[in-house]
Amino acid sequence: MPAADRLHTTMETLRVRLARTPASSWGRNILAAWRSVLPASVRPLLQGETGRLLFDHADGHLRITAETPGQERVLGEVPVDDPMLLRELAGRAAVSPSPAWLVLPAGAVLRRSLSLPAAAEARLRDVLVHEIDRQTPFTPDQVSFEGRVTGRDAASQTVKVELLVLPRVRLDQELQAIGPLAAGLAGVDVRDRDGGTLGVNLLAPAQRARGSDPSRRRNLTLLAIAGLALVMALVLVRYNRSEALATLRAEVETANLQVRDVRLARNQLVAKVDAANFLAGRRAASPTMLELLDELTRRIPDDTAVDKLTIDEGRIVMIGQSRAAPALVGLLQDSPLLVGPALTGAVQADPRSGRDRFTLTAQVAGSEGEDGDDSGR
Q1: What is the overall mean pLDDT for the chain?
Q2: How many domains does the chain have?
Q3: For site-directed labelling of 366, which of 152, 169, 173, 358 has its Cα 20 to 30 A away?
């Protein structure tokens, strides 16, 4: 099966399934209610086709009727035996926005009512081809036929179909009778018994005139404008989103730089605070210079002379003379401000003063040198 036929079959199947549901009637009612609230000048723009121009052939005359949704208005009658008049009428019908249709009387067609399975609705025309031999004395190639669904029975899964058959001989006679008008026909319809049209088209697709439909062009133009507007809106939205994203990324980068600077300043501040606290703690744990001098003054005996006293980074170096230099170590060991007092080098006697020259070292309690001395020990 060609792709076009498969697509047509699929779309027809979907249309039939939709027609079996209440959604189709709901949609028509909603559309009708929506149109009813529109101004009268706007309603024709939403009707699709503006109507039809109907030609009823009877008794050698053509009755011309303008059909609009819900009503018909007779325009006049012309004889069919005047070729010039028919050509002029055909020219005017060709430029008319309404398609031209030939309408046959009810007795011109053979009508049969059929009950078919619901599955046959999707391929109704193919099924009716096989019914023509059974329901009529003609073969399918001798007639022009059409079928219309008149009812559906959901309980029995069947559809009621009316088969309309028009012999090709009769159709050709009708087309020859209207002369030049036949070339511009969009279809051939049939009058019902109550005078209305059945809404079928018994004209072969190859013979149907395809006139220009202003509403179709207008709708296509509106559709193209709507599509272009949609594309432009999407492009604009995408551009705005990209601009917003770029702005957001720049703001995030700036915020990251600020956070990095703040974190660096915070780390520097914490380091400085820790160092200051450490120094303050060291200073609080270490005695002051006055306390050291007072401690040494109280513990060193009067027979000891100190020639030089240096205190550097918690290390005390004391050089002097004493009558009992070794005893100085014992005197200073009991001091809570000094750690590890000891004599450095040999104790030498001074012949002039009769005292011993000494060099004594100690560590101030709580100083860094004390920690190093403890770790070394």
Answers
A1: 80
A2: 4
A3: 358
